TrEMBL record, chain A:
<dbReference type="InterPro" id="IPR050573">
    <property type="entry name" value="SDH/FRD_Iron-Sulfur"/>
</dbReference>
<dbReference type="GO" id="GO:0008177">
    <property type="term" value="F:succinate dehydrogenase (quinone) activity"/>
</dbReference>
<keyword id="KW-0816">Tricarboxylic acid cycle</keyword>
<keyword id="KW-0560">Oxidoreductase</keyword>
<keyword id="KW-0003">3Fe-4S</keyword>
<dbReference type="Pfam" id="PF13085">
    <property type="entry name" value="Fer2_3"/>
</dbReference>
<dbReference type="InterPro" id="IPR036010">
    <property type="entry name" value="2Fe-2S_ferredoxin-like_sf"/>
</dbReference>
<keyword id="KW-0004">4Fe-4S</keyword>
<dbReference type="InterPro" id="IPR009051">
    <property type="entry name" value="Helical_ferredxn"/>
</dbReference>
UniProtKB/TrEMBL annotation, chain B:
<keyword id="KW-0479">Metal-binding</keyword>
<feature type="transmembrane region" description="Helical">
    <location>
        <begin position="134"/>
        <end position="154"/>
    </location>
</feature>
<keyword id="KW-0408">Iron</keyword>
<feature type="transmembrane region" description="Helical">
    <location>
        <begin position="52"/>
        <end position="75"/>
    </location>
</feature>
<dbReference type="InterPro" id="IPR034804">
    <property type="entry name" value="SQR/QFR_C/D"/>
</dbReference>
<keyword id="KW-0812">Transmembrane</keyword>
<keyword id="KW-1133">Transmembrane helix</keyword>
<dbReference type="InterPro" id="IPR000701">
    <property type="entry name" value="SuccDH_FuR_B_TM-su"/>
</dbReference>
<protein>
    <submittedName>
        <fullName>Succinate dehydrogenase hydrophobic membrane anchor subunit</fullName>
    </submittedName>
</protein>
Length: 259, 159
C-alpha cells in the first residue's frame, strides 16, 4: 500500500507536489485563552499564527502548536475522531469538538478563538474540572436496573422499543451541552442536559425497571423543571442529539405519569 | 516556605514568583458546583406544579391582560374615560370583580414564581437566596391580600 501512494506522488513530479502542498496551506491565527495557576492568577489570550491545510481540524492546529511552538499548551484529547468526548471546547464562541471542526468551516480569515468550556473550573488552559459534570451523571443512575433472575441469554427488545431511545444512546459525555447551558452556568447544582440525556437513555429503555426512580430524581429542584428550553444544548451537541427534545420528553413523562 | 523568603529577598521579582508549582494561584470556581454532598431529591411535585402553573396561568393571562388593556386603554374613548366613576361602575358587576380578582391572583402568583426562578438562577449564596425569596413572598402576599380586600370592599359612595 505504501508503494502505491509513493508512485502516485512520483507521477505528479517533485516540483509540482511541493508547490501544491505549499499553495493549499493557509495562514491562520489561533487566539487561545491561556491559564496557568502556577504562573499567574490571570487568564489571558495568546495568539499563535501557523501555516495549515484548511481541511485540517482545529485539533491538528492545537497539536501543531503544542508539538512545534509551545509545549506548555494544555488540552485534553484521546481518540481524535469524535468518539471519546474529551476535547469539547469553545471555538469562536461555540462549543464544539476540536477534532470534528475543520479550519475551513470556521472562517479562518479572522483569528479563531479557542477557550475552555464554560461553567466548570478551569484548571489549566483548555482543561476543566469535570467532576461536577460526572457527579450529575452518576446521580441519575446511568446503568441498567432490573429485578428477578438474570436471563441466560440476551434481554430481547423489539426494534420499535430500541428506536424509542436511540437518539440518546449516541451521547459521548463531552459536556458540550451542559457547558453551553445558561442555567448551568449560573447554578451548577442543575443536573444539566447531559445527565438528563443519559437518564432518558434508560427511562425509555423497555428493559430497564428504574425509570420511576430516575424520573423522581429529575422531578426535583435541580431537575428538568429548571430547563428553560434555550436550545443551546441541541445546538452544541457534536453527536447531533436532539437534547432539548429529550429533556421535554422527560418532562412530558413526568406530567403524564403523575396525573 | 522557601518561596516566602525568596520573595522577601527579591521584591522586584515578587510579581513573577508570586505563584509557582507549590503555590498555585486560586482557580475560579463556578457558582454552586454539584458534589456528592449536593442535597438529594425532596420527593415532592412542587417544581412540576410550578412549571405547569406558569404555562396554564400564562394562557389565561393572555385573555385577561389583553382584554383588560383593550377595555381600559382602547375601547370607548381610551384612557380619557377612566375615572372614579368608571371603576365604580365596573366593580358594581360581579363579572368584572371576578375578572380583576383572577387577573390579580394569576399575575401575582405567575410573576412571583417567575421571580423565584430568577432568584434561583442568579443568587449564589444560600443566605442571599433566603432573604430575596422572603422579600418576594412577603411582597406577593401583601399585594394579593390588599388587592383582594379592595376589590371586595370597594365602596362607590366613599368621599
Ligand atoms: C400575557 C400572558 C403571559 C404569558 C403567556 C406568560 C407566560 C410565561 C411562561 C410560559 C413563563 C415560563 C418561562 C420558562 O419557564 O422558561 C413565564 C415566565 C415569567 N413570567 Fe410570564 N406570562 C404572561 C404574563 C406575565 C405577567 C403579567 C407577568 C408579571 C406579573 C409575568 C412575569 C413572568 C416572570 C417574572 C417570569 C420568569 C421569567 C424567566 O423565567 O426568566 N408574566 N411567563
Ligand atoms: S448530549 Fe451531546 S453535547 Fe451533551 S454530553 Fe452527550 S454528546 Fe456531548
Ligand atoms: S478527541 Fe475524542 S472526541 Fe475529540
Amino acid at each position: 500500500m505504501g508503494t502505491a501512494t509513493l508512485e502516485k506522488n512520483d507521477s505528479a513530479g517533485p516540483v509540482d507536489s511541493a508547490e501544491n502542498s505549499a499553495t493549499h496551506l493557509i495562514t491562520v491565527t489561533l487566539r487561545i485563552r491561556r491559564f496557568n495557576p502556577e504562573v499567574s492568577e490571570e487568564a489571558k489570550w495568546e495568539d499563535f499564527t501557523l501555516e495549515i491545510d484548511p481541511k485540517e481540524r482545529v485539533l491538528d492546529a492545537l497539536h501543531k502548536i503544542k508539538w512545534e511552538t509551545d509545549g506548555t499548551l494544555t488540552f485534553r484529547r484521546s481518540c481524535a475522531h469524535g468518539i471519546c468526548g474529551s476535547d469539547a471546547m469553545r471555538i469562536n464562541g461555540r462549543n464544539r469538538l476540536a477534532c470534528k471542526t475543520l479550519i475551513k468551516d470556521i472562517n479562518p480569515e479572522k483569528p479563531i478563538t479557542v477557550e475552555a468550556i464554560k461553567g466548570l473550573t478551569v484548571l489549566k488552559d483548555l482543561v476543566v474540572d469535570m467532576d461536577p459534570f460526572f457527579q450529575a451523571y452518576r446521580d441519575v443512575m446511568p446503568f441498567l436496573v432490573t429485578t428477578g433472575n438474570e436471563p441466560t441469554r440476551e434481554r430481547y427488545q423489539s426494534a420499535e422499543d430500541r428506536e424509542r431511545f436511540d437518539d440518546t444512546t449516541k451521547c459521548i459525555l463531552c459536556a458540550a451541552c451542559t457547558s453551553s447551558c445558561p442555567v448551568f452556568w449560573n447554578d451548577g447544582q442543575y443536573f444539566g442536559p447531559a445527565a438528563i440525556v443519559n437518564a432518558h437513555r434508560f427511562i425509555f429503555d423497555s428493559r430497564d425497571e428504574a425509570g420511576e426512580q430516575r424520573l423522581e430524581i429529575l422531578n426535583d429542584r435541580d431537575g428538568v423543571w429548571r430547563c428553560r428550553t434555550t436550545f443551546n444544548c441541541t445546538d452544541a451537541c457534536p453527536r447531533g442529539i436532539e437534547v432539548t427534545k429529550a429533556i421535554q420528553e422527560v418532562k412530558r413523562a413526568l406530567i403524564t405519569r403523575r396525573f | 516556605m522557601s518561596t516566602e523568603t525568596t520573595q522577601a529577598a527579591e521584591p522586584e521579582d515578587a510579581q513573577v514568583t508570586l505563584y509557582d508549582v507549590d503555590h498555585p494561584a486560586p482557580v475560579i470556581e463556578p457558582p454552586r458546583a454539584r458534589t456528592g454532598k449536593t442535597p438529594k431529591a425532596s420527593r415532592t411535585n412542587f417544581e412540576m406544579y410550578g412549571w405547569l402553573f406558569m404555562r396554564l396561568s400564562g394562557i389565561v393571562l393572555v385573555v385577561l391582560v389583553l382584554g383588560h388593556l383593550l377595555i381600559q386603554l382602547v375601547l370607548d374613548g381610551g384612557v380619557s374615560k377612566i375615572g372614579f366613576a368608571f371603576v365604580a361602575g365596573r366593580w358594581a358587576s360581579p363579572f368584572w370583580q371576578v375578572w380583576d380578582l383572577a387577573m390579580l391572583w394569576l399575575a401575582m402568583l405567575h410573576g412571583a414564581n417567575g421571580l423565584r426562578t430568577v432568584i434561583n438562577d442568579y443568587a449564589e449564596r444560600d443566605t442571599t437566596r433566603f432573604w430575596l425569596k422572603w422579600l418576594l413572598y412577603a411582597a406577593t402576599v401583601f399585594t394579593v391580600l390588599l388587592g383582594t380586600l379592595v376589590i371586595f370592599t370597594f365602596d362607590p359612595n366613599i368621599r
